[in-house]
Amino acid sequence: MDSSLGEGKILLPRDIEELIFSRSGLRMVSLADGFLMLNNARYVKKCNVYREGEIECIIRLSSTEEQQSRGVPFQSLEELLLDGLPNFIGLFMWEGKAVVAPLLPGIFTQLTDLRIFGCNKMKKLIPWSLLQTLPNLQKLQVISCKEIEEIIGDEDDDGSPVINSSAEVTMPRLKILLLVDLPKLKSICKGMMICDSIENIIIMRCTNLKKVAPLDGQPSPPPSLKKIKVDAEEKEW
């Protein structure tokens, strides 16, 4: 995209299915904020974002009235790739206190493939309270994000705890989990992961991760699991 689009908002052709942003100089905190008419982004199925220095999140969540006026972006999105976003902190960012920002139905519900590379400011990908936005996620890859400590956060952005070790973290369609070169990663999640469809788990160069969260509450991996690849660092189930 031409960098001249950085100042203004983006008017998309109707029914566009794929978006690619690469070093375009987008001057916006949230990717969704850049669309002049969010209805035109409802049909986007694939979105790739490379080397955009000011993007901090994909969607800002705010008050009920303002959120409804914005519409529901990316409700058809199936694939999302984020690569080299130095200020990116997570998929969502609360505007004000989280308790006044109810979630709109439809956000990311069709997302099946999420890949994140080199987003070094992000400490958690998504809070547990918003995991319901990813019911159809099948592939999750997080690679070379130097500051990430949790994949699924145990606190909301206002600091209030939302999950404990006995809570269930359900990802019903997740098949592939790939975590590579995450030196500060402490946990995938604090609760018990329910992943009935998981087939492949690959964890490499995550030196601070000592234990993989229990899957389905069992001491051994679920029957669906076909492949586990873990580097030389010893990990516990």
UniProtKB/TrEMBL annotation:
Disordered: annotated segments: 215-237
Domain of life: Eukaryota
All residue ranges annotated as the Disease resistance protein At4g27190-like leucine-rich repeats domain in the record: 107-214
Protein name: Disease resistance protein RPS2-like
UniProt keyword list: Plant defense
Stored InterPro entries: At4g27190-like_LRR, LRR_dom_sf, Plant_NBS-LRR
The species this protein was found in: Forsythia ovata
Regions of compositional bias (Basic and acidic residues) in chain numbering: 228-237
SUPFAM superfamilies associated with the record: L domain-like
Any single Pfam family the record assigns to this protein: LRR_RPS2
PANTHER family: AND NB-ARC DOMAIN DISEASE RESISTANCE PROTEIN, PUTATIVE-RELATED, NB-ARC DOMAIN-CONTAINING PROTEIN-RELATED
